[in-house]
Amino acid sequence: MDLNLLRREFTNQGISREQMNKNPFVQFEQWIQQASDADLTLPNAMSLATSNDNEVSIRTVLLKTFDEKGFVFFTNYNSKKSQQIEQNPKAGLLFPWLALERQVKISGTVEKISTLESIKYFSSRPKDSQLGAWASSQSSSISSRQALLMQFESMKTKFKQGEIPLPDFWGGYRVIPHRIEFWQGRENRLHDRFVYLKQGKNWIIERLAP
User: Fold this and answer.
1) Facing residues of 181 across strands?
2) CB 3.0-4.6 Å disulfide test: which of 14, 103, 152, 157 passes with 135?
3) CATH fold for domain 10-125+168-208
4) How much is the average pLDDT of 67-90?
5) Are 188 and 175 in contact (CB under 8 A)?
6) Dist. CA 39–CA 36, nearest whole Å
7) Which pTM value belongs to this model?
8) Contact at 8 Å (CB) between 59 and 45?
9) What percent of the chain has pLDDT over 90?
10) How far, in whole angstroms, is CA 70 from its chain's centroid?
11) Using CA atoms, how far apart are residues 55 and 114, in angstroms rounded to an integer?
12) Residue 103's CB: how many other CB atoms inside 10 A?
């Protein structure tokens, strides 16, 4: 397969400095709303990059909420991503809205959200998803899928009455950004790129060469 043949021209309308909101979170809200309005599959799906001294890892997770404090996702606190975050509390996020010829790239530090915030989200999940969090020792080796399903059934029996509590090994992280880049594909690979950089309490905007 010749990958050089997989080429296409970017044809969507570009973006100008005047069109960019001075607040990057407002700008992000506009873009993710447009991605949702375009019926993209999981517009809140984002690539999450973490690292430690030995390895860089990347995987897809779902953005569950955001505000001016940062971008929140949920996971098992014993997972590989969590272990890397504990060692190096920095991360990168990427929203690849390719159908719109857009990307948003975010860099920042990572912190756990409060237990109360995690409980609030966990309680909103479907019951089977709650049970799945209890059943999976994320990132650890397992003997078979059947063993995983047996553990799921065990959790279903254990919590068959009443509310399912938040596992003490599960919860949310917040990526607190210091850099947010908005990328719009343009013809001739002369893409429009605008980056918001945090300076004190303020954000400055710069145009980047493609």
Assistant:
1) 105, 195
2) 152
3) Pnp Oxidase; Chain A (2.30.110)
4) 97
5) no
6) 5
7) 0.92
8) no
9) 87
10) 11
11) 28
12) 18
